Amino acid sequence: MRKRVAVLISGRGSNLQALLDAQQDAYEIALVVSNIPNAAGLDRARAAGVEAIALDHKPYGQNRQAFERDLDALLVQRSIEIVALAGFMRVLTPFFVRAWANRLVNIHPSLLPKYPGTKTHQRALDAGESEHGCTVHMVVEEVDAGEILGQARMPILPGDTAETLAERVLTLEHELYPRCLAQLACTRS
Ligand code: GRF
Question: Is 3-187 a domain of CATH 3.20.20.80?
Answer without folding.
Answer: no
